[in-house]
């Protein structure tokens, strides 16, 4: 049972399995003109020639070996009667037009479009001099940035942009942009409560939110701040945002404002329910739709509730 011989490290079972490592060693040595110590003398297979659209998203020979060896290892695991493992923290997914996680990338792109579309609707219908117009535009721009990086990250998550600590720069930008998006929705709530207060109070509140973002950005970019810690921070501030929108409008908004707040309350409730997908992880359905991609797909329509 070669697939079961695993080195127990912080990496995923799949990429630490014996069959995967042997495949990578043989493939890279034979096909990529890379000298690999103790590499197998026989290549398991010859990777296909990279198409133009695959080269366009920076796939190279070693990446091609990794991709094909994933499926070689998956077949070995299944033949041994073992469950499909994760590789590098992700479930195996088929690559389409050079896109590494096609479903997540597509849903992220649709979220980006929805965010852009709702921003345009807002600008067409709300006067710029309205008290909260700048705050909502800022929130939308932060969202567009977050979905852009999510699309890029799911299109091609690689180590070619290693930055500072050796972790993929795109991955960190995806994490950081998502955190900024959470803080932006929280800041909308805070500014909505404080918009009649003196400017100094609003500046202090905004400064506090910015310091939270800056502190998290420093940890992500300049320290070994892992995925688990990042998730804990996002869950904390995400929970504060959801609970804040659910309960604070009853205390701080008048009756008319509470009517409008119901749409956002419904939106954050749906976001909370959809987050369950991130907890109950499972292998990709049809090798395309994993829990994370379905989470992205479930949020597309929520943008229209928030802006309403």
From TrEMBL:
- Where in or outside the cell? Endomembrane system; Golgi apparatus membrane
Membrane-spanning segments:
134-156, 176-195, 200-219, 231-248, 260-280
Question: What Pfam families does the database record attribute to this sequence?
Answer: Per1
One annotated GO molecular function = hydrolase activity, acting on ester bonds
Its domain of life? Answer: Eukaryota
GO CC annotation: endoplasmic reticulum membrane; Golgi membrane
Q: Which UniProt keywords apply?
A: Golgi apparatus, GPI-anchor biosynthesis, Membrane, Signal, Transmembrane, Transmembrane helix
* Membrane topology according to the record: Multi-pass membrane protein
The role this protein plays is: Involved in the lipid remodeling steps of GPI-anchor maturation.
Question: Which family does the UniProt entry place this protein in?
Answer: Belongs to the PGAP3 family.
Q: What is this protein called?
A: Post-GPI attachment to proteins factor 3
